[in-house]
Amino acid sequence: MPQGVIINCMTVFVGGILGAFLKSHFPKKLSEALPNIFGLSAISMGVYLIIRLQSLAAVVLAIIVGTVLGELLGLEENLLAGLKKLEGKLPMDMSEEQMEIIISLIILFCFSGTGIFGTMNYAMTGDYSILYAKSVMDFFTAIIFGTTAGFLVGFIAIPQFAIGMLLFFGGTYILPFTSDLMISNFKACGGIITLAVGLKISNIKKTRVLNILPALILVFPFSLLL
C-alpha cells in the first residue's frame, strides 16, 4: 500500500482547499512573506541534492540536452495552453500570475527530484521519511498559494497521485538496473530543477522549468556512458 504517496497527495489537496477558503482571512503579511520562505526552502533542498552528484559532466550534459529537447517540444508552453483550455471550462477566472503559480506548483509537487526519488526509494525500501518531509512542506506551500491561485492548487493532487503511483509501481523494476552513481546523479539533476523552481517562486530568476524535465531521464544513460 503506497501510504507515502497517498499522504503526500492528501496534504496538497487539503492544503490547497484550505488556502482557498482562508483567502479573505489570511494575513496579508504572511501571504507576502511566506512564498519567499518556501522558495528559499526549495533552493535549500536543491542545494542539498546537488552536492550528492558524482559525475558533473553527466549531470551538466543531461541538463543541457534535456532543456534543448524540452524547449523544442514546448513542454511548458503546451501545459500552459492546456491549463488555459481547462480554465475556460471552470467557473473561475485566473490571471497570468495565477497561471504561473499553478505551473510552478505542478513542477514542485509532481516533478521535484525529492518527490520522484522519494517515491521510488519508498517503493524499494519502505523508507517513507523523504516523502513525509516533503508532505509537510507541500501542505503549507499549498495553503499559501491556495490563497492566491484558488481551489485549483488542491486539484494538483490528481496528476501528482497519477505520477506518484506510476513511479511507485515502476520503481521496483527501475532501481535494480541502476547503480549508486546513477542515483546520485539523478538526485543532483533533480536538485538543479528544484533549485530553479525555488528561484522562480522567490521571483529571483524566471525559468521555463518544465522544459528541463527530460534531463531526469537522460541523466541515467549519460551517467553510464560518461
Q: How many DSSP E strands?
A: 0
What is the mean pLDDT?
82
**Number of helical regions:** 10
Structural class: mainly alpha
Shape by Cα distribution: globular
Indicate how many domains the architecture comprises.
1
Main sheet properties = none
Rg over CA atoms, rounded to whole Å, is: 17 Å
Write the H/E string, N to C: HHHHHHHHHH
Structural summary, described in words:
By secondary structure, this protein is an all-alpha fold. It has one domain. The protein is built from ten helices and no strands.
Question: Nutshell version of this structure?
Answer:
This is DUF554 domain-containing protein. This protein has 226 residues and is mainly α.
Fold blueprint:
Layout: H1 3-21, H2 28-50, H3 56-73, H4 75-89, H5 96-110, H6 113-125, H7 129-149, H8 157-174, H9 180-201, H10 215-225
InterPro entries: DUF554
Keywords: Membrane, Transmembrane, Transmembrane helix
Pfam families: DUF554 (PF04474)
Task: Provide tags for this entry.
single chain; 226 residues; mainly alpha; 10 helices; transmembrane
